[in-house]
Write a structure and sequence with these properties.
The chain has helices spanning about 20-25, 60, 75-85, 110-130, 160-175, 200-215, 235-250, 250-260, 300-310, 320-325, 330-350, 365-370, 380-385, 395-410, and strands spanning about 10-15, 40-45, 65-70, 95-100, 135-140, 145, 160, 180-185, 190, 215-220, 230, 260, 285-290, 315. By secondary structure, it is an alpha/beta fold. α4 (about 110-130) links the parallel β4 (about 95-100) and β5 (about 135-140). α1 (about 20-25) crosses α7 and α6 packs across α11 (about 330-350). The chain is globular. It starts with 8 loop residues before the first strand and ends in a 6-residue tail after the last helix. About 45% of the residues are buried. The mean pLDDT is about 95. Bound molecules: 2-acetamido-2-deoxy-beta-D-glucopyranose (NAG) (2 copies). It comes from Lentinula aciculospora.
Amino acid sequence: MVDGSSKPNVLICGGVNTYSRALAAFLVPLEGEPLVSHLRIVDKYSVVPATTYLGAEFPKVLAKPEVDYKQANLTVLSIVQSIFDPPEGQGPYDYVFDLTGEVRYDRTEMIQINTTCNVARMLGQEAAKRKVKAYVRITLPFYETTSKGTHDEKDDPKPDGTIGIWWHETLRILSAIENLNLVILRVGFVYGPYVEFGDTTSAITVGSVYGYLKKPMKSVWSPGKNPTNTLHVDDLAGAAWTLAQWIGPLGRKEADSLAGESIIFHNEKSKVSQVEGMPPHDQKLVAPLFNLVDDSNSTLLSVGQTVTSFFGTTFDFFNLGERTMYKFMDDAVEDINEHHVGGWTQMIQSSNPPIPNTPLSAYMDKYALEKHIVAFSNTKIKEVTGYKLKQPQFNHDGIKEIVDKWKEEGSWPIL
Ligand SMILES: *[C@@H]1O[C@H](CO)[C@@H](O)[C@H](O)[C@H]1NC(C)=O
Ligand SMILES: *[C@@H]1O[C@H](CO)[C@@H](O)[C@H](O)[C@H]1NC(C)=O
């Protein structure tokens, strides 16, 4: 391969159900030169036959000669260690992208500890032992910031619920691993082609139903500045790559001095003795941390308006009386879903050509319906690494690209 020896070997762990597929397609594009010499992706899913949604593009990426997929249980230490052994003829892994972690909001604390904290800890420890040049941890917006002002990396947002507490704890655990060339990328609400996970995708699907029904889509939350900052998945991939290249030549110490932030304790002190590798509450931990959101300053209202106007309807809010009725979230979840789940089914059944199955659902779970306030500043990553957003705005073009690709692969109704 031309210049093969000068390109890094890369390991992506986890995230096939979220953003790893887009990252893999960025590193080894279907058209054009790969950025890597060799890429291994490891996750618990089988890809042949697929045990999770893969999208039309990912199987083609997997078929590239540079790419190797391993189905593996990363909760097992010996397996974690073995995935770092490259295939014969390849040098050791230079960069690791850690997209592991349980993303379902309703999992128990025990599951979060076992599959979010422990998996990342074992990966981080092995990566440190192997002297990996860059370990990029992707962390999702399981936080609540305040509505006002900007929120740079000095800000200390509150982890949101059980999932937030343990995803945040994972950052502390990784930060504490000696000689780990860790850099953390904390993203907003990610959307993009073949991304079926997340609130923004949910908003797009549900918005289409209200467009189809020719009714306004209504929010249970009062109008107000509820930031829900967005990010295109191509920028998640691009920035993760930029950060690996940034820390690679620097190393952790230098990276900490240039971009280190305190990773503050947000847990119960009593957990420290119960969770392996959890640093004491008063241990001062520092790691290079970068927020990444697009330039849209997206809010509940702006996302709602962009999505509904794309589908030819409007975004509205329930009035006070209606909101009072939905004081009890569990009732609200069923009531609200009744309005649009049937509509989506109708759309799927009316599609020509028919849609035998789709990963998309108009069902909004409790998490999707809860109020989330996530506002991050993206200034630091731009200033420190020179990263330029590829998709700075959440707009109709972005939604069209997503819907067109779903139509093409037969996941979205053609009416
Ligand atoms: C992964 O390994 C753990 C620990 O041995 C086990 O409890 C779990 O069931 C395994 N998961 C799968 C999907 O095999
Ligand atoms: C988590 O791991 C512990 C220790 O290996 C095990 O005893 C427990 O059954 C696991 N729990 C879950 C929910 O996976």
